[in-house]
Amino acid sequence: MRRPTLEEVAAAAGVSKMTASRALRGAADVSKDSILKVREAAERIGYVGNQLALSLSAQRTNLIGVVVPSLSNVVFPEVLSGISAVLEGTGMQAVFGLSDYDPDKEREVIRNMLSWRPSAMIVTGLDQPDETLRLLRQADIPIVQLMDLDGEPVDFNVGLSHGAAGEAMGRALLTTGRRRIGYVGSGLGRDLRAAKRKRGFEMSLRQADLSLEAEEVAPDFSSPSLGKRLTRALLLKAPELDCIYYSNDDMAAGGVFACMELGIAVPDRLLIAGFNGLEIADALPVRIATSHSPRREMGETAARLALQAMTPERERLERIVAFTPRITLGSE
Amino acid sequence: MRRPTLEEVAAAAGVSKMTASRALRGAADVSKDSILKVREAAERIGYVGNQLALSLSAQRTNLIGVVVPSLSNVVFPEVLSGISAVLEGTGMQAVFGLSDYDPDKEREVIRNMLSWRPSAMIVTGLDQPDETLRLLRQADIPIVQLMDLDGEPVDFNVGLSHGAAGEAMGRALLTTGRRRIGYVGSGLGRDLRAAKRKRGFEMSLRQADLSLEAEEVAPDFSSPSLGKRLTRALLLKAPELDCIYYSNDDMAAGGVFACMELGIAVPDRLLIAGFNGLEIADALPVRIATSHSPRREMGETAARLALQAMTPERERLERIVAFTPRITLGSE
DNA sequence: ATGAAAGCGCTAACAG
DNA sequence: CTGTTAGCGCTTTCAT
Questions:
Q1: What is the domain partition of chain A in residue ranges?
Q2: Residue B332 confidence (pLDDT)
Q3: Which residues of B touch A56 (CB under 8 A)?
Q4: CB-contacted nucleotides of strand D (7 Å)
Q5: Is any atom of strand C within 7 angstroms of residue A21's beta carbon?
Q6: For A4, which DSSP code?
Q7: Is B238 exposed, middle or buried (CB count within 10 Å of its CB: 0-12, 13-18, 19+)?
Q8: What number of other Cβ atoms are within 10 A of residue A97's Cβ?
Q9: Residue A332 — very low, low, confident or very high, per pLDDT cuts 50/70/90?
């Protein structure tokens, strides 16, 4: 049994398809009487409009495609929440896709999304392969590239420079007098932004004629457990470190736990530095240093930009919106 | 400039629209030669199929609608990852929506999704208002209700009984000899499943002629920080507690942090019990009790069920798939 | 204020 | 193996 169509609503209300269509969309130039009859009929029949037909006919959709690498890292759910919140009530609707940090998968996800003819796309990062970029350009819709800033955007760009963020953290840590510095990270092969932070960090050390004394990296996904394990391994190799930089706060939290178990005073003897400014960092019994990335704001900004870029206002918009993470060093 | 259509691909390849259509979909009964020509033409022109037209014409979509209350609680991203993973490669595509724990918003999100004519829906919980249930039933597609088990499902149901989970945790804690028991929770007004766990937990206490000695609840969203604050408040009111049950592991982690700062030995002096079995519980420097909920598996199962329910196999499927969370008490 | 006609881009069904 | 015809359910455009 098929779902009721607009035609059936119209018949039940005793008007034409067009009048029914206008009435339901709240268009001007429809008599109060028709509106009432149509609304009533639609309600009674249980009519739910068909967006497929609507979008095909109107030659536009209310869809904004959003592609993120994963949902396992809390950062991305937060970005998505920001996007959702801004879109709420605008009539536009976000559609999410996951790339699993895989460029091929990302390309296919994007291709799939484009086949729904979204009115804009928001994608993570600037490092897409050429073919993916070509797909996006040919779509001829506003494209927002999100999170990163170190590269050439296709269209719009909202994010922060991870290279600069790593460098800034390095300089900040050096001001505290720390000199024996180690690094713990994970998934640098796929998490290009974490890798950029590490490079920036190392550059700041070089400028002070220092370098990483020891590092421990794993290909796995980041987690407090992994951070804890790698920290133990690192401290075994290099017990005299007075500071460790982590690929992110999840890993850094694990570092804190390792230190608690080992009886190492944080931050007095060992300073722990992460990235993101996650909620958990606030709750920990000791303070860590971190860069607060405005994840939700970046999502909100991207969504707002996408909306504006669909209007004539488009030409007057800034193509690049740069955020700067705020560094806190904890109790030091 | 409009995007190229199938017609243009066909023209470029020197065949008819239908042959082009068949060639691109890899249908049988198309000559090798046509396939090659069409593929080449599509590639050259940069053709991306139009799902709107496809779905409208074929009278079916490859969409599965998924509605969850939020992405802030890591549990839901994990569920979504499970769903995504199962759908990968099946040609079906998940579309996510957020209800923000608001029944009205949930209804509108579901109504919106249904207007895209998804082939199945997966929604969180069993406690939808009648009107929402009516919408879902009238859609005449497989409906999977997820996470919860305490209630009457519309169609299919995958989850666990939160009442039973709370009760089981209560009984387990009692076997450890704890008698002075407190509770810390948040958002029980909207998080109906957490409220069910609390009720089950209290029931198990009553059966041992006990009751909660003290409790601290807040309307906010759960987080380690909130758990820490409420734990401090609770211990001020009731310092002799030997056990605290939390609405979930995020809150329980905050409880651990509070105890560390207060110098309270966990679990020796105070046993901390949460719910979910989150990754962070493993990394903490002390052990907490928790119920391990198979979140990813529930998502996978729901997706698998939705897929099967779209086939003739539908009649032979179990309507209810019950999971039982595994309880671990930590070092006790 | 309302309606009729045309068409969005594709596939199902039938013919060749 | 390939093409033709007839929609899918809606909106746009043009009449009235």
A1: 6-49, 63-160+295-323, 162-292
A2: 46
A3: 50, 52-53, 56
A4: 1-5, 7-13
A5: no
A6: P
A7: middle
A8: 22
A9: very low
Distance CA(B146)–CA(B138), nearest Å, equals 19
Q: The pTM is what?
A: 0.94
Is A15 near strand C, with its CB below 7 A from some atom of it?
A: yes
A239 Rama class: left (phi>0) / alpha (psi -120 to 50) / beta: alpha
Q: Inter-chain contact B283–A227, Cβ cutoff 8 Å?
A: yes
Please state which architecture CATH assigns to domain A6-49. Orthogonal Bundle (1.10)
Q: Chain B partners of A51 at a C-beta cutoff of 8 Å? A: 115-117
Q: Compute the distance between CA of residue B273 and CA of residue B243 in angstroms, rounded to an integer.
A: 8
CA atoms of A63 and B115, how far apart (whole Å): 13
Q: Residues B269-282: pLDDT tens digits?
A: 999 999 999 999 99
Give the total residue count for chain A: 332
CATH fold group of domain B63-160+295-323: Rossmann fold (3.40.50)
Q: Where are the alpha helices (DSSP H) in B51-161?
A: 51-58, 75-87, 103-114, 130-139
Cα–Cα distance for residue pair A46/A69, rounded to 1 Å: 38
Structure tokens at A34: 């028709």
The secondary structure element, H or E, covering residue B164 is helix B162-175
Q: Name the residue closest to C7, CA to C1'.
A: A57
Determine the 3-state secondary structure of A98 from DSSP: strand
The β-bridge partners of B255 are none
Residue B5 near chain A (CB below 8 Å): no
B282 touches chain A (CB under 8 A): yes
CATH class of A162-292: alpha beta
| Cα B241 from Cα B180, distance rounded (Å) | 5
Is pLDDT above 80 for B71?
Answer: yes
Domains A6-49 and A162-292 share a fold: no
What residues of chain A lie within 8 A of the CB of B84, using their CB? Answer: 98
Structure tokens that stand for B79 in this block? 């569920």
In this model, does residue B44 exceed pLDDT 80?
Answer: yes
Give CA separation, A246 vs A184, A265, B281, B288, in Å: 5, 17, 20, 26
Strands (E), A214-295: 214-218, 243-246, 271-273, 290-292
